[in-house]
C-alpha cells in the first residue's frame, strides 16, 4: 500500500515559496565571502545549510495553480509516496507499455466529480521521467519508478519520477482541479501486483468518493449526492483483500467499507437503514445495510467508532489489525477479520490526528 503523510499549510507566503528538498550535507567553498559578509548579505538565498543537510528551493509544486485558479488551503495536505513496479515483456513494447500505464501523460482539469463535471480537457505532455531502474527478469524487464501524489486545496497532482534526488520532476502525469465546493481531502493509490495499472481513490469535503482507473480512464462516484454521509472524508485506503474493497472514514465518526465493483446506485431520496450485528456501547458498533432485494449494494458494512470524528486509520502489514484514531482522543485497535476490539488508549492532549503501524512487532505510533 502507499504511504501517506499529513501536513497543514497555514503560512501566509505564496505556495511556491514553501517547497524545499533536502540533500546530503555538503559544503561549498567556492565563495570568497567571509562569514560576516554572508550573514549581512541582503541577497535572497535559494539554499542554506543546516545540521541535517542542505535545504534547496524545489520546483515540485510549481504547477500548483498554474491554470489561474485560487487554491484554498483550508484542508490539510495529504501526500502519498509509493514505488511502482512495471513489467515490460520486450524492448519493442516498452515505450507503448510506459505510455499506457502512466495515465497517458495526461493533464486533466476536472471542474467537478463525474456527472457534475462541466468541463474536461486532456492534454498529452512529455513524460516526467526518461527511464527508471530497469531489472532483467526471465519473463521480461522490470522498471521501477516512484509515484508522488498530493491533494492540496482543490487540486490533485501526481508525479512519476525515476530517482528521489531529481531536482525537477517535470510535468505531472495527472493534474485535476475540482469545483470549489468539492475539495479533495484525502486520496489513496494502489497498483495490483498482476497489472501495471494504477487505481486511484479520492475523498471529498462533501462526502463523495471518486474512483479513477489510470489506464482506461474509467471513473465512478460513490456516495453521490451525499446520501450515505454528508460530512467530509477524512481518510481513505484500499483493502488488501478482496482487492476491490476499500475503506473510508468520515468526520461523522463512521467508517464505511465499499466494493468498487458494485455499480448499483440506490435511490438517494430514501435514507439508508442499517442492521447492527455487533455493538460495544462504549467503543464501536458494526452494521450492515438492510437490503430486501438480493442485489448487492454499497456500503458493504458501516463501523461506528467512538464519539467524534475519525481522523485516520491504518492497517498492520499482515492486514490483521486495524488502528483508528479519533477526535475523542482514543486510539482503538481492532482485529479486522474477527471484528473485535483488542486494545485502546486515551490521549492526554485531546484528539489524535494520525496513526501508523510498523512491521516490527506491530509497533503503533499516533499523535
Automatic annotation (TrEMBL):
<protein>
    <submittedName>
        <fullName>Uncharacterized protein</fullName>
    </submittedName>
</protein>
<feature type="region of interest" description="Disordered">
    <location>
        <begin position="1"/>
        <end position="34"/>
    </location>
</feature>
<keyword id="KW-0853">WD repeat</keyword>
<dbReference type="InterPro" id="IPR036322">
    <property type="entry name" value="WD40_repeat_dom_sf"/>
</dbReference>
<keyword id="KW-0677">Repeat</keyword>
<dbReference type="InterPro" id="IPR015943">
    <property type="entry name" value="WD40/YVTN_repeat-like_dom_sf"/>
</dbReference>
<feature type="region of interest" description="Disordered">
    <location>
        <begin position="88"/>
        <end position="136"/>
    </location>
</feature>
<feature type="compositionally biased region" description="Low complexity">
    <location>
        <begin position="91"/>
        <end position="108"/>
    </location>
</feature>
<dbReference type="InterPro" id="IPR001680">
    <property type="entry name" value="WD40_rpt"/>
</dbReference>
<dbReference type="InterPro" id="IPR051362">
    <property type="entry name" value="WD_repeat_creC_regulators"/>
</dbReference>
<feature type="compositionally biased region" description="Polar residues">
    <location>
        <begin position="109"/>
        <end position="136"/>
    </location>
</feature>
Amino acid at each position: 500500500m502507499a504511504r501517506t503523510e499529513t501536513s497543514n499549510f497555514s503560512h501566509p507566503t505564496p505556495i511556491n515559496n514553501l517547497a524545499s528538498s533536502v540533500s546530503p550535507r555538503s559544503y561549498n567553498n567556492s565563495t570568497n565571502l567571509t562569514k560576516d559578509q554572508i550573514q549581512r548579505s541582503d541577497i535572497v538565498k535559494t539554499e542554506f545549510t543546516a545540521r541535517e543537510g542542505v535545504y534547496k528551493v524545489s520546483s515540485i509544486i510549481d504547477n500548483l495553480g498554474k491554470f489561474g485558479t485560487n487554491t484554498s488551503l483550508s484542508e490539510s495536505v495529504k501526500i502519498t509516496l509509493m514505488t511502482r513496479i512495471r513489467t515490460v515483456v520486450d524492448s519493442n513494447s516498452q515505450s507503448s507499455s510506459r505510455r499506457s500505464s502512466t495515465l497517458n501523460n495526461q493533464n486533466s482539469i476536472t471542474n467537478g466529480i463525474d456527472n457534475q463535471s462541466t468541463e474536461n480537457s486532456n492534454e498529452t505532455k512529455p513524460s516526467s521521467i526518461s527511464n527508471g531502474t530497469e531489472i532483467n527478469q526471465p519473463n521480461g524487464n522490470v522498471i521501477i519508478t516512484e509515484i508522488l501524489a498530493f491533494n492540496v486545496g482543490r487540486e490533485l497532482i501526481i508525479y512519476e519520477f525515476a530517482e528521489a534526488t531529481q531536482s525537477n520532476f517535470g510535468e505531472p502525469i495527472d493534474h485535476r482541479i475540482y469545483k470549489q465546493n468539492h475539495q479533495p481531502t484525502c486520496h489513496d493509490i494502489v497498483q495490483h501486483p498482476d497489472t501495471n495499472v494504477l487505481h486511484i481513490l479520492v475523498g471529498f469535503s462533501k462526502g463523495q468518493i471518486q474512483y479513477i482507473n489510470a489506464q482506461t480512464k474509467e471513473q465512478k462516484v460513490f456516495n453521490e449526492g451525499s446520501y450515505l454521509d454528508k460530512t467530509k472524508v477524512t481518510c481513505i485506503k484500499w483493502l488488501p483483500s478482496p482487492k476491490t474493497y476499500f475503506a473510508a472514514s468520515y468526520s461523522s465518526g463512521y467508517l464505511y467499507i465499499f466494493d468498487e465493483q458494485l455499480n448499483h446506485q440506490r435511490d438517494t431520496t430514501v435514507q439508508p437503514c442499517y442492521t447492527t450485528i455487533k455493538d460495544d456501547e462504549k467503543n464501536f458498533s458494526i452494521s450492515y445495510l438492510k437490503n430486501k432485494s438480493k442485489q448487492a449494494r454499497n456500503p458493504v458494512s458501516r463501523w461506528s467508532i467512538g464519539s467524534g470524528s475519525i481522523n485516520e486509520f491504518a492497517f498492520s502489514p499482515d492486514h490483521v489489525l486495524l488502528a483508528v484514531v479519533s477526535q475523542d482522543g482514543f486510539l482503538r485497535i481492532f482485529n479486522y477479520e474477527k471484528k473485535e476490539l483488542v486494545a485502546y488508549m486515551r490521549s492526554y492532549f485531546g484528539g489524535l490526528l494520525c496513526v501508523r503501524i510498523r512491521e516490527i512487532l506491530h509497533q503503533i505510533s499516533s499523535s
